Known about the structure:
This protein is an alpha+beta fold. The chain contains one helix and eight strands. The protein folds into two domains: 50 residues; 81 residues, Gamma-B Crystallin, domain 1.
Amino acid sequence: MNQCGHPSGSVTPQAIEHGSRLVLLLLGIASVFRTMVIFACSTFAAAAAAAADCELFEHKDFAGASIGVERNQSLSRLGALNDRVSSVKVGPRCLMVAFAEEDYRGTTTTFGPGNYASLPEGWDDEISSLHCNCR
Ligand SMILES: [Ca+2]
């Protein structure tokens, strides 16, 4: 007996049809599984993206109050951290464009991906607005 319940031995057209249905079923399951994996991966990616891609901290070494800015978002004002940011983190594939004044005005500088435990000369306690540009 084969697994479809037909007598083993001669392969009947019915058995072939049965077998191809099984293959189609397996392909269907594989497809659904692959879709689920893709969905899970994209969900995970979305969750990872939900963690701020640009982070700003009140003190050096990522201490004190912080602000998270999601990918491809901008902040025209930093509120309580205006002129008080002393360290930043920039996610992979992101650039943080920082401005010395609100509304993306004044002197500007760009931070590539990485963790900056302190800011470059002239930028400590200066940032007032920013873009978090990610690709
Ligand atoms: Ca400023």
